[in-house]
Amino acid sequence: VQRDVYNLTDVLRGAASRVHETLLIMPADTVLDLDIEAALAAHRANGGAATLILHAQHSANSLPIRLSSFNRVQPVGTSSAQGDLQFTGACILEPQALEYLIQHGIPDDTMLFTALLAAEIPVFGYVSEGYWNPLNSLQAYHAAQRVFLYSAYQQVTAEDCEQPRVRYPSIEGQQIAPGVWVGRNHAIHPNARFAAPLCIGDGCLIGDDVELGPYAVIGPNSVVDDGATVQHSVVSSRTYVGRLVNLADRIVERTTIINPQTTQHIEVVDPFLLSNIVREHSRGLERVLTALVAGLLLLLASPLLVLIALLVALTSGGRIFRREQRVGRRANPSKIAETSTLDVWYFNTQRSDGSRTLFGTWLTCWGIDHLPSLWNVFVGDLNFVGVKPLTLDEAAHLRESWHEKRNDAAAGLTGLWFTQSEPETDLDAVLVADVYYAATRSRRGDLRILLQTPRAWLRRSRLLASKRMRSSRSLPRQMA
Prior knowledge:
The chain is an alpha/beta fold.
């Protein structure tokens, strides 16, 4: 789990209901080549409640950790023959340690071991011998790219070198030459020259007389124009590199050139040198297709909608629909991208005095009261798949910086918040699901969520119906 999105407490809280055995936590914002079997064997041999995965690599910004002769983590300030080690962020926990951390809420994973030690919970350490890069600086990120490319290239050429490497590198794309990986839907001029190792992402356009590599990474949907040279550099996705531009030992983020060694950066204002490739036409086409599907569903469901509307009118005193304010980002790309208030339509389930009708309760239990929200998808307020449209009260609780990540995705009728949670899941779990979706969303992932939605709807509806049945049975006993 990325540290800039979640803290460790959020991760543990989300896992607590599903984990009843030994748990391995691996940070996703680091490169860690860990022998999991060896680490787990050491954890079981030590018999402790927690084992920290440590590394001999030293960083001035980290808190040093020292081990006793029995591999037990010592309090800060204790001298040891094993010297200073560094916590990689990975750890192995037993249920009792997990329960303690959830109850006390550890906000920073670097303080995990100190909290456990203070509670007198035995904590041991396992020193990993594999490659580790915390990715805590641009220089570290640039170095990790080089190590990963070299490791994959070394597997192809079977060269033996003392350079750092990972054991199981995996690069998506077709290997068109030893150490040269190219993604799908590319267009490469026959006169382009490549030097391994090199990775070119999906949908890239490479022009005439271009020189790429060695140790170059070209992000997806980027364009490298005629005569440009990219060596020992990383070009982010959707970036245009102009004609005759020469990049060496740099990280390019759209219109920004960064020196990873000094972190100095230059903003390029000339779009003929560097620019951001914006493909609004694809988003517009996607929105048109979404509107067409929503309109078709409304048309096909119109007999059912009319029938439900008549029953609602008869049972609620004439009011058929209700409009509720929700907070989220609109799906329509032609409208503002920032979070705004949305008017979402539902079938009315209440009488004029605010009490819920019997038919309205049935509609709510089975989620049928949400059918009018298809109109919101049709007009561009919602997507079929997205983050949860929050109520005003729920939106008022968005105070953490990581909460803002969910605004990268539009609100939707369904999403991970629907398929992976229960009807009465707390807001924190919903926000974790939303932020994860916003950080990892893709068309294939959206299709997967849509296919999972019917089963999730049936599960949630049965839970609500059974709860309603239990409450109705207990009411006569309470009255008695």
